[in-house]
UniProtKB/TrEMBL annotation:
<keyword id="KW-0894">Sodium channel</keyword>
<protein>
    <submittedName>
        <fullName>Acid-sensing ion channel 5</fullName>
    </submittedName>
</protein>
<dbReference type="Pfam" id="PF00858">
    <property type="entry name" value="ASC"/>
</dbReference>
<comment type="similarity">
    <text>Belongs to the amiloride-sensitive sodium channel (TC 1.A.6) family.</text>
</comment>
<keyword id="KW-0739">Sodium transport</keyword>
<keyword id="KW-1133">Transmembrane helix</keyword>
<dbReference type="GO" id="GO:0015280">
    <property type="term" value="F:ligand-gated sodium channel activity"/>
</dbReference>
<keyword id="KW-0406">Ion transport</keyword>
<keyword id="KW-0812">Transmembrane</keyword>
<keyword id="KW-0407">Ion channel</keyword>
<dbReference type="GO" id="GO:0005886">
    <property type="term" value="C:plasma membrane"/>
</dbReference>
<dbReference type="InterPro" id="IPR001873">
    <property type="entry name" value="ENaC"/>
</dbReference>
<keyword id="KW-0472">Membrane</keyword>
<keyword id="KW-0915">Sodium</keyword>
<feature type="transmembrane region" description="Helical">
    <location>
        <begin position="396"/>
        <end position="423"/>
    </location>
</feature>
<keyword id="KW-0813">Transport</keyword>
Length: 434
């Protein structure tokens, strides 16, 4: 009995893997951003860049050294410029005075979903640090939003885009690479750019097959995970509250917001623009001094166990979902396709003076699709349920009690047998004497 109780209160569990097939499913949300984000042909962007450069005694010319190599100088300047451009975009958005910025058509020159042509109505514009302006396909804005569905799988289905990232030498200021950032995520969430997504190079056609895996952990007493991470309770921490209100809860984002409010803001008196939160009234860090302050805080905590300081603020989610990417690449475009595409009506002016090599350095194709219309569920289940414990204890008690009663009855039966024999023998003796 003791061993049964001990086993039960050790809370053993097993992990099962199941695959569920569907014939029709919601298509995921896809966010993409141009890595070459500083489009100086846009007047608003050019103004912010020039203003930031002059205020910080910078010029377009960067002179690296052995002590501070090119990658360090370029990235340090890029962080400063990206923070200022993003700050300007948010200020304009809040006051409804945002000027004309690059449109979806500036970035995407062909778009198809499941073989049907798509346009700007299928996308939502968002602003993210390091990319400035991004676009999300199939985003769920509210309960009335109709999410696109698909019953198709494979490379011939899904979302197909042809992307223009900007002419080389004209739209690659302060960046050391060219290409596209792309993330697949939940329709009701925004991408966590610090933790998810992939980067695609120019001059390629990328086919990206997506699979979904759902993880379901057992809550207390089996683990310390939290089942409901969609609501905020009265005794929840302020950090957790801010994370939930910023979008879909993840522990990684919660740690970032914990770091922001507990350490970065108190020390630097400004907000790290890399951390996504829509419940923030602090201004972004937009000077070299402020950005260096952020880096010093991060450098300190990158070598520390953040769970020791933010563990109670950020519970583990019991239910999580993960997208996995399977990628394949081909060379794009061909010389033949180049001769055809430069005649396209919306590209004649854009590629008017472009050579085959310059076009190859500024374009790419991407096709995102479901590899299979199925989902994998990795689920924990308890091995011993309460009625199993009751049955086990009850069976053992029944066995022990049965043995005990039998053992007790044996001497009683023996006494009765002896008494019966004695009485019988006595009666026989009396009868014989009579």
């Amino acid at each position: 009995i003791f061993m049964s109780l001990k086993t039960y209160f050790s809370y053993p569990f097993s992990t099962s893997v199941s695959i569920y097939e569907t014939n029709l499913d919601d298509f995921h949300a896809i966010t993409f951003c141009n890595i070459n984000s500083f489009n100086t042909s846009n007047e608003n962007t050019a103004y912010v860049l020039n203003k930031t450069l002059s205020e910080n005694n910078l010029t377009l010319e960067i002179n690296p050294s052995k002590e501070s190599p090119a990658i360090n100088e370029v990235q340090r300047s890029y962080k400063l410029l990206a923070a200022n451009v993003l700050n300007e975009l948010f200020l304009k958005t809040r006051t409804n005075s945002i000027t004309a910025t690059s449109t979806l058509e500036d970035l995407v020159f062909s778009c198809y979903f499941n073989g049907q042509k798509c346009d700007s109505r299928d996308f939502q514009r968002i602003f993210l640090f390091g990319y400035n302006q991004c676009f999300t396909f199939n985003k769920k804005l509210n309960s009335s939003t109709v999410i696109k569905k698909t019953s198709k799988t494979g490379p011939k289905s899904g979302l197909m885009l042809e992307i223009f990232t900007g002419h080389p030498g004209q739209q690659d200021l302060f960046v050391e690479k060219r290409g596209l950032y792309l993330a697949v995520h939940n329709n009701s969430a925004y991408p966590a750019i610090n933790f998810e997504g992939i980067k695609l190079p120019v001059g390629t056609s990328a086919e990206i097959g997506i699979k979904r895996t759902f993880y379901r952990k057992l809550s207390e007493p089996f683990s310390k995970c939290r089942k409901d991470t969609f609501t905020v309770l009265s005794d929840d921490s302020e950090v957790y509250n801010r994370t939930v209100k910023s979008g879909v809860y993840t522990r990684k984002n919660c740690f970032e917001i914990c770091l922001l409010f507990k350490y970065i803001i108190p020390k630097c008196n400004c907000s790290d623009p890399r951390i996504q939160t829509n419940v923030l009234n602090f201004k972004f860090c937009t000077t070299f001094k402020e950005i260096d302050c952020i880096e010093s805080v991060r450098k300190h905590f990158d070598s520390e166990d953040l769970s020791l300081t933010c563990d109670k603020e950020c519970p583990v989610s019991c239910d999580t979902m993960e997208y996995t990417y399977q990628q394949s690449f081909a060379d794009y475009p061909t010389q033949y396709y180049y001769e055809i595409i430069k005649k396209q009506d919306n590209l004649k002016n854009k590629f008017k003076n472009s050579t085959f090599d310059s076009l190859k350095q500024s374009t790419l194709m991407v096709n995102v699709f479901y590899q299979e219309l199925s989902s994998t569920f990795v689920e924990e289940t308890r091995l011993i349920r309460p009625f199993d414990l009751v049955a086990s204890v009850g069976g053992l008690l029944g066995l022990f009690l049965g043995c005990s009663v039998l053992t007790l009855m044996e001497p009683i039966a023996f006494i009765f047998d002896v008494a019966y024999i004695l009485i019988t023998d006595k009666n026989q003796i009396n009868q014989s004497q009579a």
